[in-house]
Every structure is written in C-alpha cells, then in structure tokens.
Design brief:
Structural class: mainly alpha
Helix content: over 70%
Distance between the termini: 37 Å
Number of strands: 0
Order of helices and strands: HHHHHHHH
Radius of gyration: 19 Å
Shape: elongated
C-alpha cells in the first residue's frame, strides 16, 4: 500500500508543487514555472539514481510541459489543474483491457471468481472516467480550493471506498463459493 501512495505522490508531484506555490504566492507564472522545473528535476533525479522511467513518467512530463506552457501563455491555472483529469482518462482507458486486474489478485480469487474480477476491472475504469470528468469540471471553475478538495477528498475518498467495497464483495463471494464447494 505504501508503494501505491508513493507512486501516486510521484505522479501528482508537479501538480502538488503548482498548487502549493500558487496558494502561497498567488502567482500563476511562478507556480507554473516551479512545477515545470519540478517535473524536469524529478525525471533527472530518477535518471541519476538509475531508476527505470516508465511511459507514464514521460507522459506526465509532457503533460506538465504542454499544459504548463499553455498556462504560462494564458496566465490561467485551469490548464495545469486539468493534468490529473487527463491522467484519469488515460488510466481509465488502460483499465478497459479485459482481465487487467487479474494479475493483481491473490490466487484464491483468480481461481475462484475470475469473472467478478473482470467486472471489477471495468467498474474501476468507469470510476476513473467519472473522477476525471468531475475533476475537469471542477478545474474549469478555476477555484483552486474546490479543486484541491475534489482531488484529495472526493477523488481520493471514492477510490478508497471502491477498494473497500471490492475487497469485501470479492471476499464474500469467494467465501460463499468455497463453502458451497465444500458442501458438494
């Protein structure tokens, strides 16, 4: 679980930097410049440490540079705030691949209820699209406090709730199937 939060923080680092600098200084240009520099520094640091850089790292850097550039040109923070929405849409699209979630499940679940895991994978994809659309709508308002609340509380809470529901539902189904098999 610690790995998941570390990756999430890494993926959102430039947006977090942007938001923090903007809230402290109320300067879109400075916040955007620092966020872009932070994204480049993050990639350079990973390269110096010999860490493998994945497609999402380069996609994130490209989004920060492009959306940051548009933000600098327009002096409008909404473009930087759109970055997590684009990431959610991309992740949702990847999650549409049938059975993507099976590799993350324990063998007991994969052997017992693979069809439910596939359904859960599609439900996660739908959740990513809904969160991305909501985040884009909130970003369009330009209200940074509302956007930060949505990102941290609404989007984060929805993912935690979805994980908990999935865990308990799959556990219940596996337990019931195993009991039924034992009786037969």
């Amino acid at each position: 679980m610690k790995d998941v939060f570390a990756r999430l923080a890494s993926d959102l680092l430039s947006v977090i930097i942007f938001l923090a600098v903007y809230l402290v200084t109320d300067n879109v240009i400075l916040a955007t410049a620092v966020a872009i520099a932070g994204a480049f520094a993050q990639v350079i640091y990973a390269r110096l440490k010999g860490q493998p850089l994945h497609y999402m790292t380069y996609a994130s850097l490209a989004l920060v540079v492009v959306l940051g550039g548009i933000t600098l040109l327009t002096n409008d923070p909404r473009f930087m705030l759109a970055k997590p929405s684009i990431a959610h849409f991309a992740i949702g699209a990847i999650m549409l691949k049938r059975g993507w979630m099976l590799r993350y499940m324990p063998p007991a679940i994969v052997e017992t209820v693979p069809e439910y895991v596939t359904i859960a994978g599609y439900a996660w994809a739908a959740l990513m699209f809904v969160i991305g659309a909501g985040m884009l709508a909130v970003a369009a308002t330009g209200d940074l406090k509302l956007w930060a609340f949505y990102l941290m509380v609404v989007a984060g809470g929805a993912k935690i709730l979805a994980f908990a529901v999935q865990y308990f539902v799959l556990r219940l189904i596996v337990t019931n199937r195993r009991r039924a098999a034992a009786r037969a």
